[in-house]
Specification:
This protein has seven helices and seven strands. With 255 residues, the chain is α+β, with helices and mostly antiparallel strands. The protein is globular. The model has no long low-confidence stretch (mean pLDDT 93). The structure holds adenosine-5'-diphosphate (ADP). This is histidine kinase.
C-alpha cells in the first residue's frame, strides 16, 4: 500500500510539472509572437515617413530650379514624425526593461503637474483649450522616478489637449487617497468608444474614430503610461463617453 501511495504521489507531482512546463511554453510563445508583431509594426511605422522623405528628395533632385517649399514642408513634417516615433520607442524600451532599476525618491506631484501644464499652455492657447490644476494645500508626493512620472503626466495632458476641441477645458486634479496619490486628468474632448477603451494601452493602437485620426500621434503614449504605472506599482483607469470627454485616473504610492 505504501508503494502504491508513493507511485500515486509521484505521478501527481509529474502531472503538475508537466502542466507547469506546458503553461510556460505557451507563455513564451505568446511573448515571442507579440515581439514579432511589434517589430513588424515598428518597421512599418518607420517606413512610411521615410518613404515620403525619400520621394520628396527625388522630386527636388529632378527639378532643382522649381519651388521647393511644398517638398520641404512635407519632409519637415515627416522628420518630426520620425523623431517623435524614435523618442517614444526608446522610452517604451526603457520602461519595459525589467532589469532597469527604478529610481525611488519623493516626487512633488504638484510641481511636476504645474511644469507639464506650463509646457502645454502655448499649444492649448492656440487651440483655445484651457488647462486648470486642482490640488490641496498639502501637496501630495509620490514615490518613484521623477523622470518617468513626468513622462506619464506629459503624455496624459498632451492627449487631453490634443483630443479636446476648440473651447474645451482640461482639468488635472491631485489628492491623497489613503496611502496613494490620485491624479485625474479630465477633458471635454472627443471621447473614446467602449470598444476602443479595451485596446487603448496596446502599442501603436490608434482609435478608428476619424476625429481622433485627424490628430497626429504614434499610438505609443498610453502604452508608455501603462508601463510606467506598472513599474511604480500603481493603477490606471479610463472613463470616457464619445463626444463628451475622457478622464484618466492614476493611483500611485505616496512618498
Ligand atoms: P497617440 O495619441 O499618439 O495616438 P496614445 O497611445 O497616447 O497614442 O493614445 C492612443 C489612442 O487613444 C489615440 O490615438 C486616441 O484615439 C485615444 N486617446 C488617448 N487619449 C485620449 C483622450 N484624452 N481623448 C480621446 N481619445 C484619446
Amino acid at each position: 500500500a505504501l508503494e502504491i501511495g508513493r507511485d500515486v504521489g509521484r505521478s501527481i507531482v509529474n502531472a503538475r510539472l508537466f502542466e507547469l512546463e506546458r503553461r510556460m511554453t505557451a507563455e513564451l510563445r505568446r511573448a515571442d509572437r507579440a515581439k514579432t508583431v511589434l517589430f513588424s509594426t515598428v518597421s512599418h511605422e518607420l517606413k512610411n515617413p521615410l518613404a515620403s522623405i525619400m520621394g520628396h528628395l527625388e522630386l527636388l533632385k529632378e527639378d532643382p530650379s522649381g519651388d521647393p517649399s511644398w517638398s520641404l514642408k512635407v519632409m519637415e513634417r515627416n522628420t518630426h514624425r520620425l523623431q517623435g516615433l524614435v523618442d517614444d520607442l526608446l522610452t517604451l524600451a526603457k520602461v519595459s526593461d525589467p532589469d532597469r532599476p527604478l529610481v525611488r525618491e519623493r516626487v512633488d506631484m504638484v510641481a511636476l503637474v504645474r511644469n507639464a501644464v506650463d509646457m502645454f499652455l502655448p499649444r492649448a492657447a492656440q487651440e483655445n483649450v484651457t488647462i486648470a490644476v486642482q490640488a490641496p494645500p498639502q501637496a501630495p508626493s509620490a514615490w518613484g522616478s521623477p523622470e518617468e512620472l513626468a513622462r506619464l503626466v506629459d503624455n496624459l495632458i498632451s492627449n487631453a489637449v490634443k483630443y479636446t476641441t476648440d473651447g474645451g477645458a482640461v482639468t488635472v486634479r491631485l489628492r491623497t487617497v489613503g496611502d496613494r496619490v490620485e491624479l485625474v486628468c479630465s477633458d471635454q474632448g472627443i471621447g473614446i468608444s467602449k470598444a476602443d477603451q479595451r485596446s487603448l494601452f496596446t502599442e501603436f493602437f490608434r482609435s478608428t474614430n476619424p476625429d481622433a485620426l485627424e490628430v497626429p500621434g504614434t499610438g505609443l503614449g498610453l502604452s508608455i503610461v501603462q508601463r510606467i504605472v506598472a513599474r511604480h506599482h500603481g493603477t490606471v483607469a479610463v472613463d470616457s463617453e464619445l463626444g463628451k470627454g475622457t478622464s484618466f485616473t492614476v493611483l500611485l504610492p505616496t512618498g
